[in-house]
Amino acid sequence: MRPGGRAVRPAMRTLVLPALIIGFSVVVIWASLQLDLSPPMIVGESMQPRVFPIVLMIINMGLAVALALQYRIAPPKQIRLEGRSTWGTIALFGVFFVLTVYVDMIIAIAATVFLMCLLWGERRLPVALAVSVLTPTTVFLLFDKVLQIRFPRGLFTNWYYG
After folding, report:
1. What stretches pass through the bilayer (predicted)?
2. DSSP secondary structure string, 70-128?
């Protein structure tokens, strides 16, 4: 019950999260549009720095609309947090940040993915190792070769870029 005796309609409560996601996406798009265009001499054939966050936020808004529609079809049930997995994942995001800043982003992705596999219950070490090698390799090759976007310098990227 709200103050004053009015109840919050359950249908409106399910739209709060998608609305917040869309609002956040609009703010990021607005902030991205404030970035200056880079001269062709710097970016060459690759895309402008502001294009990537805008495209990501458009995808994000589409997924938020899909989430709202899904909530309309089947409202979410109350769930309980999976203590160890939830807090372990949050801690791994902190580990990822530290490794990215002080070691290398590719190494951070590999280590975080491997530890998340173990945390979430994968018992086959070769599978967890394969996922932790293939994921950053695919991400790196996609960004470096296809999108022509270089990663920040670190141990692996210094070796790769020379």
Report:
1. 12-31, 51-69, 90-121, 127-143
2. HHHHSPPPP----HHHHHHHHHHHHHHHHHHHHT-HHHHHHHHHHHHHHHTT---HHHH
